Amino acid sequence: MSTLLVGLFVVLTVWRLVRYLTRPSSLLVDVAGPAKEHWLKGNLHRIFKDGIAYNLELVKKYGGVVKVYGLFGEEQLYVSDPRALHHVVVKEEHVYQEADMFIMGNRLIFGEGLVSTLGEQHKKQRKMLNPVFSLQNMRTMLPAIQPIAIKLRQRLIEQLPIDGGATEINLLPWITLGTFEYITQAGLGYSFDALGSNPDHEYPVAVRSLAPTFLKIMLLRPLIPVVVRNFSLYWRNKIVDWAPIKPLREMRRLVGVMESSCRNILEEKRRELASLDTYKGHGGARTKDKDIMSILLRTNASSTEADRLTESEILGQMNTIVFAGFETTAMATCRILHVLAMRPEVQARLCSEVRRAKLAFKSAHQLPEEQRWQDVELPYDELMALPYLDAIVRETLRVYPPSSLFNRTTTQTATLPLQYPIRSASGAEISSVAVPKGTTVIISILASNHNKAIWGEDASMWKPERWLTPSGERISEATVEDRNGMQGEEGSPGTKAGVKYPGVYSNMMTFLGGSRACIGFKFAEMEMKQVIADLISTMQFSLPSAVDAFGNRKEIYWRMDALQVPVVRSPAGDDRSAQVPLDVRLVNERDFSE
Ligand code: HEM
User: Which domain of life is it from (predicted)?
Assistant: First the structure.
């Protein structure tokens, strides 16, 4: 580690220590939780590194609000109680805000996008962007991006033996390239041909390198607000030039590539839209303006002065949408394929459902006889209505949320009311918790989605049937309706005695709830369903069967990090490199359950 990095680390350590030693005596003293397990990391290393089991154990032992220790022993609250989370993300969202270092760090990287703004500015941006992600827009967007799944499928098929035998493919890079192409085509209206001959264009490479580079300078994150508030851009650049910290300079370079690429795309898009408008004036059809940025530019141009986004806010949305929508969806799609590989009977039922639907569509629309059913593309409403596919996607997102934990910090003293009372450290039953100003609140998406009081005793089991009626129909929209309120309808999954989580999607917290909930969840759902339906029509996935020289077989394990990341356990793997190796072969008649 360079001298400066050590120096900064020491300054940070001393600053944190002073803050810790001069803090008021703990106001969280009566909240129960595990003992501090490390002087520096508190319990964080257990929460992140020991994954799902440790997180669920915390809640089982202490309930919906747990006191845990963060860096330098800072007391934090680990929250999964539904009423408490309703307060955090909906009712008192202004009190539980993203930390300064998060917002300011995002602003340096992405510009003035949704993930970098708070309060009125964030509200204004959501008001402009929410309609862009409407159902109607998803419907018209789908046909424009369907060819991506076909291309992804083709690239995989090229690697398979033609005799129908299986071969092992690491699906992660392929799914990642596919998701990248989806989000750039649908989000920016621009193709980097990620699945073609030039996957190494500098923009995709910069986007993919961003998170790993950022992780190398994570420790500097708490310094961001101090630096941003006290140094001009000129001096900040000088600091980066002088500091002997290579990843910091690399980070600046990546941000530069992302910024200039988006600027060029935006200019091109404006020219394109202008010419399409002229074309439309002559009665022509539009083909290239279905993407999120085109819709945003049009909506913005026709909105009032007060609502309109500035140039810098528009640019800020571009990298934000690409970054927020790409790895999360790639990991979720890989997780579905992994689950299908573990459950051949589920895969067979899904194959049959997709085949039935495509054949029915082919016949209803009198498509040419010679068109294979595998190549029929279902429109949005038909695709979204497939009950078993829908149940598989929902259940995977519930049990295995790609991001498990998010932080908020209280801007003032607050009280968190609880749905389910907990035992305090002194043994009393308490139904609310006093939260001091400046407390870090960890929103546990994972523990919420596994809460037995809401999802039943089998909450941690992957059971797609919970989203289906006994006869296999999808539980009606009226009961699985997405709402931000606390009241749920009895009988719908994720509702018990009228209580539900305030999640924006299917009563679960995977996409969060409230005004900062994921804006792209309908897009993610559509993309995952389309990719899975297309892949499953032609290919069969199973767990890796090859054994190494010592007789070890690869076992995929999802490590908990900022995202849940698939690795191969030792001894067959290194426990670190992200990968999803599955056996893949062409589908045959025996792969269908009917
Ligand atoms: C399975 C895939 C996805 C998951 C699990 C997911 C999850 C989330 C979560 C939990 C948040 C809240 C983060 C926070 O409050 O700090 C969020 C925010 C966001 N997501 Fe997603 N997301 C996914 C896909 C997408 C896609 C496809 C897009 C874009 C097309 C997208 C765009 C965004 C944006 C722009 C935000 C920031 C919203 C705001 O602050 O107002 N996400 N996402």
Answer: Eukaryota
Ligand 1 pocket, residue 114 CB under 6 Å: yes
Question: Residue 9 — very low, low, confident or very high, per pLDDT cuts 50/70/90?
Answer: low
- Of 514, 504, 508, 478, whose CA–CA distance to 495 is shortest? 508
- What are the tokens at 94? 């202004």
Instruction: Record the tokens describing residue 307, joined without a space.
Output: 């609502």
Nearest to 185 by CA among 222, 132, 148, 136: 148
Quick one: pLDDT band at residue 23, thresholds 50, 70, 90? low
ipTM over 0.85: yes
Our answer on whether the CB atom of 523 is closer than 6 Å to any ligand 1 atom is: yes
Instruction: Answer whether 0.90 is exceeded by the pTM.
Output: yes
Mean pLDDT of 187-214: 87
CA 76 → CA 58, 72, 90, 100, 407, distances in Å?
Answer: 13, 11, 20, 17, 10
Residue nearest to atom 24 of ligand 1 (CA): 325
* Spatial contact of 112 and 312, defined as CB atoms under 8 Å apart: yes
Lowest-pLDDT range of 81-85, 174-178, 288-292, 496-500: 288-292
Mutate to test the pocket of ligand 1, among 327, 518, 530 (most ligand atoms within 8 A of CB): 518
Q: How far apart, in whole angstroms, are the C-alpha atoms of residue 464 and residue 391?
A: 5
Ligand 1 site, residue 324, Cβ cutoff 6 A: yes
C-alpha 451/C-alpha 430 separation (Å) is: 19
Ligand 1, atom 6, residue with closest C-alpha: 511
